Amino acid sequence: YRPMLLAAVVGRPQPRIRPYLARRALRVLPAYWVSIAVAFTVVLADRNGRDHVGEWLRQMFLIWNYTPGHKYRALDQNWSLCAEIIFYLALPFWARALGPLRRRARRWWTVELIAVGSLVVFTVGWTIMWHQTTWVDVGLAGYWLPSHLDWFAAGLFLAVIHVMATT
Q: Is pTM, for the whole model, over 0.85?
Protein backbone atom coordinates (compact mmCIF):
# COMPACT_ATOMS: atom_id res chain seq x y z
CA TYR A 1 0.00 0.00 0.00
CA ARG A 2 2.87 2.36 0.74
CA PRO A 3 3.80 3.00 -2.93
CA MET A 4 0.15 3.66 -3.80
CA LEU A 5 -0.33 6.03 -0.88
CA LEU A 6 2.98 7.82 -1.42
CA ALA A 7 2.15 8.42 -5.08
CA ALA A 8 -1.22 9.86 -4.11
CA VAL A 9 0.19 12.10 -1.39
CA VAL A 10 3.04 13.57 -3.46
CA GLY A 11 0.97 13.83 -6.64
CA ARG A 12 2.68 11.17 -8.75
CA PRO A 13 0.75 8.75 -10.96
CA GLN A 14 -0.48 5.63 -9.21
CA PRO A 15 1.57 2.48 -9.75
CA ARG A 16 0.16 0.42 -12.61
CA ILE A 17 -2.18 -2.37 -11.47
CA ARG A 18 -1.07 -5.10 -13.87
CA PRO A 19 2.62 -5.12 -12.77
CA TYR A 20 1.53 -4.85 -9.15
CA LEU A 21 -0.72 -7.91 -9.48
CA ALA A 22 1.96 -9.81 -11.41
CA ARG A 23 4.47 -9.20 -8.59
CA ARG A 24 1.93 -10.33 -5.99
CA ALA A 25 1.17 -13.47 -8.01
CA LEU A 26 4.86 -14.27 -8.44
CA ARG A 27 5.34 -13.86 -4.71
CA VAL A 28 2.53 -16.21 -3.70
CA LEU A 29 1.59 -18.64 -6.44
CA PRO A 30 4.69 -20.70 -7.37
CA ALA A 31 5.29 -22.08 -3.88
CA TYR A 32 1.56 -22.44 -3.37
CA TRP A 33 1.19 -24.50 -6.55
CA VAL A 34 4.07 -26.75 -5.52
CA SER A 35 2.29 -27.41 -2.22
CA ILE A 36 -0.92 -28.17 -4.09
CA ALA A 37 0.89 -30.52 -6.48
CA VAL A 38 2.35 -32.43 -3.54
CA ALA A 39 -1.03 -32.56 -1.81
CA PHE A 40 -2.70 -33.72 -5.03
CA THR A 41 -0.24 -36.60 -5.26
CA VAL A 42 -1.06 -37.60 -1.69
CA VAL A 43 -4.79 -37.25 -2.29
CA LEU A 44 -4.66 -39.46 -5.39
CA ALA A 45 -3.32 -42.26 -3.25
CA ASP A 46 -6.47 -42.02 -1.09
CA ARG A 47 -9.22 -43.69 -3.11
CA ASN A 48 -12.16 -43.40 -0.72
CA GLY A 49 -14.55 -41.73 -3.16
CA ARG A 50 -13.94 -38.06 -2.39
CA ASP A 51 -14.04 -35.50 -5.20
CA HIS A 52 -10.26 -35.20 -5.48
CA VAL A 53 -10.05 -33.44 -8.84
CA GLY A 54 -12.70 -30.89 -7.88
CA GLU A 55 -11.03 -30.30 -4.55
CA TRP A 56 -7.65 -29.92 -6.21
CA LEU A 57 -9.08 -27.33 -8.63
CA ARG A 58 -10.71 -25.42 -5.77
CA GLN A 59 -7.39 -25.43 -3.95
CA MET A 60 -5.42 -24.52 -7.08
CA PHE A 61 -7.52 -21.44 -7.74
CA LEU A 62 -7.73 -20.38 -4.08
CA ILE A 63 -11.51 -20.71 -3.85
CA TRP A 64 -11.86 -23.78 -1.60
CA ASN A 65 -12.82 -21.65 1.37
CA TYR A 66 -15.76 -20.17 -0.56
CA THR A 67 -17.27 -23.57 -1.45
CA PRO A 68 -19.16 -25.17 1.48
CA GLY A 69 -18.55 -28.82 2.07
CA HIS A 70 -15.36 -28.98 0.04
CA LYS A 71 -12.67 -28.30 2.61
CA TYR A 72 -9.79 -30.75 2.61
CA ARG A 73 -8.38 -30.74 6.16
CA ALA A 74 -4.77 -31.40 5.11
CA LEU A 75 -4.64 -28.02 3.38
CA ASP A 76 -6.31 -25.81 6.00
CA GLN A 77 -3.21 -23.63 6.27
CA ASN A 78 -3.88 -22.30 2.76
CA TRP A 79 -6.83 -20.22 3.99
CA SER A 80 -4.50 -17.28 4.60
CA LEU A 81 -3.40 -17.22 0.97
CA CYS A 82 -7.03 -17.17 -0.16
CA ALA A 83 -7.65 -14.12 2.01
CA GLU A 84 -4.36 -12.52 0.98
CA ILE A 85 -5.13 -12.82 -2.73
CA ILE A 86 -8.54 -11.18 -2.27
CA PHE A 87 -6.86 -8.38 -0.31
CA TYR A 88 -4.28 -7.86 -3.07
CA LEU A 89 -7.06 -7.65 -5.64
CA ALA A 90 -9.00 -5.13 -3.54
CA LEU A 91 -6.06 -2.92 -2.50
CA PRO A 92 -5.76 -0.80 -5.68
CA PHE A 93 -9.49 -0.09 -5.51
CA TRP A 94 -9.15 0.84 -1.83
CA ALA A 95 -6.35 3.29 -2.65
CA ARG A 96 -8.31 4.87 -5.48
CA ALA A 97 -11.58 5.03 -3.52
CA LEU A 98 -9.90 7.00 -0.75
CA GLY A 99 -8.36 9.42 -3.25
CA PRO A 100 -11.21 11.96 -3.43
CA LEU A 101 -11.66 11.93 0.35
CA ARG A 102 -7.92 12.31 0.88
CA ARG A 103 -7.74 15.29 -1.51
CA ARG A 104 -10.65 17.09 0.18
CA ALA A 105 -9.37 16.53 3.71
CA ARG A 106 -7.29 19.13 5.48
CA ARG A 107 -4.92 16.40 6.62
CA TRP A 108 -4.82 13.41 4.25
CA TRP A 109 -3.72 11.09 7.00
CA THR A 110 -6.92 11.60 9.00
CA VAL A 111 -8.88 10.02 6.15
CA GLU A 112 -6.42 7.14 6.03
CA LEU A 113 -6.47 6.52 9.77
CA ILE A 114 -10.27 6.65 9.93
CA ALA A 115 -10.47 4.23 6.99
CA VAL A 116 -8.00 1.86 8.63
CA GLY A 117 -9.93 2.05 11.90
CA SER A 118 -13.13 1.28 10.01
CA LEU A 119 -11.60 -2.00 8.84
CA VAL A 120 -10.99 -3.01 12.44
CA VAL A 121 -14.56 -2.09 13.40
CA PHE A 122 -15.87 -3.97 10.36
CA THR A 123 -13.91 -7.09 11.34
CA VAL A 124 -15.40 -7.02 14.83
CA GLY A 125 -18.93 -6.57 13.44
CA TRP A 126 -18.39 -9.31 10.87
CA THR A 127 -17.10 -11.72 13.51
CA ILE A 128 -20.07 -11.07 15.78
CA MET A 129 -22.44 -11.48 12.83
CA TRP A 130 -21.11 -14.82 11.63
CA HIS A 131 -21.01 -16.22 15.14
CA GLN A 132 -24.54 -15.07 16.00
CA THR A 133 -26.44 -15.76 12.77
CA THR A 134 -26.84 -18.41 10.11
CA TRP A 135 -26.27 -16.02 7.20
CA VAL A 136 -22.89 -17.52 6.34
CA ASP A 137 -21.26 -20.93 6.68
CA VAL A 138 -19.82 -20.79 10.20
CA GLY A 139 -17.23 -23.43 9.31
CA LEU A 140 -15.84 -21.31 6.48
CA ALA A 141 -16.54 -17.66 7.37
CA GLY A 142 -13.49 -17.52 9.62
CA TYR A 143 -11.35 -18.21 6.57
CA TRP A 144 -12.72 -15.28 4.58
CA LEU A 145 -11.02 -11.89 4.22
CA PRO A 146 -13.58 -9.96 6.32
CA SER A 147 -12.57 -12.08 9.32
CA HIS A 148 -9.01 -10.82 9.02
CA LEU A 149 -9.25 -7.27 7.73
CA ASP A 150 -7.91 -6.09 11.08
CA TRP A 151 -4.61 -7.83 10.30
CA PHE A 152 -4.39 -6.07 6.96
CA ALA A 153 -5.38 -2.83 8.67
CA ALA A 154 -2.22 -3.12 10.77
CA GLY A 155 -0.13 -3.16 7.58
CA LEU A 156 -2.08 -0.25 6.12
CA PHE A 157 -1.54 1.66 9.37
CA LEU A 158 2.21 1.12 9.13
CA ALA A 159 2.18 2.34 5.51
CA VAL A 160 0.32 5.50 6.56
CA ILE A 161 2.78 6.15 9.38
CA HIS A 162 5.74 5.62 7.05
CA VAL A 163 4.39 8.00 4.42
CA MET A 164 3.57 10.57 7.12
CA ALA A 165 7.16 10.37 8.39
CA THR A 166 8.76 10.65 4.95
CA THR A 167 6.66 13.42 3.36
A: no
